[in-house]
Amino acid sequence: MNRATFTINRLVQSSLSRRTMASSSASALLRSKLRDPSLLREQAYIGGQWTANNKTATFDVTNPYDGKVVGTCPDLEAEDAANAVEVAQTAFQSFRHTPARQRATILQNWHDLMKEHEQDLATILTYENGRPLEAAKAEIQYAASFFGWFQGEALRAYSGETIESSAPGQRVLTFKQPVGVVGVLTPWNFPSAMITRKVGAALAAGCSVVVKPAAETPYSALALAELGERAGVPAGVFNVVTTHAHLAEVGKTLCEHDLVKKISFTGSTRVGKLLMEQSASTLKKLSMELGGNAPFIIYDDADIDLALKGLMAAKFRASGQTCVCANRVYVQEGVYDTFVQRFADVVKREMVKGDPTMAGTTLGPLISEAAATKVSGLVEDATKGGAQVVLGGQEARQSSDPSTFYPATILKDMQPSMRASREELFGPVTAFYRFKDDDELFKKANDAEVGLAGYVYTEKLSRAWRVSELLETGMVGVNTGMVSDPVAPFGGIKHSGFGREGGRVGLDEFQVLKTITLGGLGLPVTK
Ligand code: SIN
């Protein structure tokens, strides 16, 4: 090593260690809240190593509640993503041949470790995402349930058929093989569950993965990596590339890399379309779980108490920041006024805004100030167009509130011409529309570019069935506000994307079908 190289290396090392020291002081607060502080990792995870891949640049992760820096992560670049893909490819060559029983055991261990560390995982999620602690725990349980589900599916990969060939005396067999290295791109709204839903299926199938978590919420992904290592996930099978400034180029690298055989993405329709374009040149298998604009329908004959409960769940989960949140609530005219008033009473009673780490808080901040500004713009547009504010709204914002807060808000007399009817509210705003009959309802409810989830409340079986069949969405909740369940295939139609996650079919997304035609079997053939 010459002197100049030595000096440069020293400089890089000292800058790295300065940054490491700086990051540990920023992250000391969160670390002090954890029973197992080693779950908070501030490095990327590639090939079983905690690493910055020799990069010195880092980015800050901030707490949406108080704007304070929670810690830092390496700001990795396209070449680091490519390196992770190569590492994942090497790992895939042997992982694909591990017995299903072994992959199932790893997933079961991972699930059990998540349950054991539920409190810490929830605390990490709360600090980086702003989700109130109890709700964060619910996400960790939901996230772990995908490992639980897919460990079973790994064992039950009943793949293949035996088919009598068109040619005399021949037979055709099919079976399924793991697709290969998977690029997993996940959002900030479910920092843990959107990873486990994809990765559980990928590992059950025998694939390796490169995860690019959202820049806002990398620590949940890195905590999963730490637990994955303890669970026995072989080095290189689960990799996490953290990035912020190079988000677009890292995504593009995963999409364009020939060794990546599948992209599984959850996020906006706009980005999904871009990733699909980028994946075209290598003809990748894709799953796209994109935006929604869920209609939530309440007929005159509905069980109103049940509908109130369901709407609370479908609206306020993650402070309204989910793709399956009720975006347009259609109430039949006979119960419209009563329902809106009763819902306002429940919201006033149950939605308690505040510090998400405090017990009793049910409404945390949104992910960023920009998110709160967007919600505020949609509410303003609706009120200018004639919607009435029943609760919350701009007036209810207090100067002491963090800039990321938006109050629980109820709007009534919404119209299809308003922006909130076409765009995802992605915040704690419930928008009520009145409807008279099915003709009007279907015209309005299906007038959306996207089609992820929909909900209907009625006591009439024929109505429930008709709505379920005619609603242009990938999922329908009948008399329930919750469609998310590891056993149930999750996904949309129209511009909400394609592919299904969870359920029995969730595994297929990470497999390819192989056909074998067998001749020369010596079978008797009658001419
Ligand atoms: C999402 O919002 O993208 C996922 C929500 C869920 O899994 O329930």
UniProtKB/TrEMBL annotation:
Residues 50-516 form the Aldehyde dehydrogenase domain. It comes from Sporothrix stenoceras. The active site is at E289. InterPro entries: Ald_DH/histidinol_DH, Ald_DH_C, Ald_DH_CS_CYS, Ald_DH_CS_GLU, Ald_DH_N, Aldehyde_DH_dom, Aldehyde_DH_Superfamily. Pfam families: Aldedh (PF00171). Belongs to the aldehyde dehydrogenase family. Gene3D superfamilies: Aldehyde Dehydrogenase, Chain A, domain 1, Aldehyde Dehydrogenase, Chain A, domain 2. This is Succinate semialdehyde dehydrogenase NADP+ linked. Keywords: Oxidoreductase. PANTHER family: SUCCINATE SEMIALDEHYDE DEHYDROGENASE (EUROFUNG), SUCCINATE-SEMIALDEHYDE DEHYDROGENASE, MITOCHONDRIAL. It comes from the Eukaryota. The keyword Oxidoreductase applies.
